[in-house]
Design brief:
With about 350 residues, the protein is an alpha/beta fold. It has eleven helices and 19 strands. The mean pLDDT is about 95.
């Protein structure tokens, strides 16, 4: 951690929280969210779905096992900023290649360390996600409030984090060919498909249905990603052109876009779902836990009116977490089924493979 750089968080009402800067010496402004993950901070930091957000980690010690070259979920960093109670710069792990502060500095991400993250989490939980600023301690609060007032939502967030050209991931003796529509893809999703005998072609978010069908795939996966799903209307049209022709599987943002393609409505959650959340299934009494990262949820009544079957709910707040249309071979979940980070106790990719086999 830095011994000479001080940083502060400024909230929209002028409240300030001061601490040390364990990351890059830059000013940022973004949506303030909290994440409840106990491990997996590297996967969180490299998840494109966090683009433009400032993440408050609720677990008190972050960075204790360093950064590993093999564990990134994308080639670029996700969030605008990070806030932790304590940032470890002496990791204990034979695999680590960088410390967390070194990585944050390289990726131009400021990190506020030494604040009461429990108090900050309660503020977000009670008041909802908000736009905030991370600035050097000497910055006048009026300047930070001007930054917050001038902040504008990135309506092209998906395009900004998506790949710019197609790429491939092959596996020996493959059984199926899958096209992944990259809306902010996590690499572990591709790994799960490869492990199930799928050759994967990843295409940019701006790809048309004709371009996707030209690969003659057995199925299409619509990935997770950042931003308001209603800003990605062109992807909804692509889904409309694909569903019913071949199996379609949606993850997180992908589920929201699939719901929109059926005419269901979305609403914004007060504080979003970021980190591990319990889930209950329509087909089982078992409660499972899965990793989440989304701010928008599907309105249950509109999903039912659109003819969608509801498959999962959040066990804490009862929001819809899974939808299905068996007639169109369409299936989607609002959470991260690849278990990175998180437990590997679900078989959602197996279900997608079975849909392609059928």
């Amino acid at each position: 951690m830095s011994v000479d750089k001080r940083l502060k968080l400024v909230l929209p009402d002028g409240r300030q929280m001061h601490g040390m800067n364990a990351g890059a010496d830059v000013c940022v402004c973004g949506e303030l969210v909290f994440n409840t993950s106990m491990v997996g901070y590297q996967e969180v930091l490299s998840d494109p779905a966090y683009a433009g957000q400032i993440i408050v980690m609720t677990y008190p010690l972050i960075g204790q096992y360093g950064i590993m070259d093999e564990d990134f979920e994308s080639k670029g960093a996700g969030p605008a900023g990070l806030i932790v109670r304590e940032c470890c710069d002496t990791p204990s792990n034979f695999r680590y290649t960088k410390t967390l502060p070194e990585y944050l500095e390289d990726e131009k991400i400021p990190c506020l360390e030494g604040v009461d993250t429990r108090m900050l989490t309660r503020i977000i939980r009670d008041e909802g996600n908000m736009i905030a600023a991370l600035v050097p301690e000497e910055t006048p609060v009026e300047k930070a409030l001007e930054m917050i007032a001038a902040f504008k939502e990135d309506k092209d967030a998906v395009k900004h984090v998506s790949c710019k050209k197609r790429w491939f991931s092959r596996t020996p003796q493959h059984v199926h060919d899958v096209v992944v529509l990259d809306c902010g893809l996590k690499h572990s999703i591709v790994g799960e498909l490869n492990r199930r005998g799928c050759n994967v072609t990843v295409v940019p978010a701006g790809s048309t249905a004709e371009e996707i069908l030209a690969f003659n795939p057995d199925g299409v996966l619509v990935s997770s990603g950042p931003g308001n799903p209603e800003n990605a209307a062109e992807i909804v049209e692509v889904i409309n052109a694909l569903k019913g022709k071949l199996p379609v599987f949606g993850i997180s943002l992908g589920m929201a876009l699939i719901a929109l393609s059926y005419g269901a409505k979305l609403y914004k959650l007060k504080a979003g779902h970021h980190g591990g959340h319990p889930l209950r299934s329509a087909d089982s009494a078992r409660i499972i836990t899965a990793e989440h990262n989304h701010n928008y949820a599907v309105e249950e009544a509109s999903a039912l009116a659109a003819g969608l079957k509801l498959t999962y709910w959040d066990a804490a707040d009862n929001t819809v977490e899974g939808i299905e249309c068996a007639a169109d071979k369409v299936y989607a979940v609002q959470f991260y089924p690849e278990g990175g980070p998180g437990p590997d106790e679900t078989d959602f990719f197996d279900k997608f493979v079975k849909m392609m086999e059928d």
